[in-house]
Specification:
The chain has helices at about 30-40, 50-70. By secondary structure, it is an all-alpha fold.
Length: about 90
Amino acid sequence: MPEPMTEPTTESATEPGSAPAPALPPPAPLSPETLAHLARRAGLPLPSDRLAGVTATVNAIDAVVGALRHVPLGEIPPAPSFTAAPSRKSS
């Protein structure tokens, strides 16, 4: 069974009066060799002719997700505490 990949995290919400956690530098893009190694460890078939395309896709997805890590959430409550107002249809 492959070991789960972890990366350092920062708290998205800060406590009142505390300084925000410092931003982490973005991770380096995965190389095709690293991605091939990870695919083998996970037991996923990854033909060499698809390696370049899959590597580009994985790095693009990681860049988009990485951008979300920098969204300042501040004091926004978690989604489960969201209360939706009843919809009002105009006639």
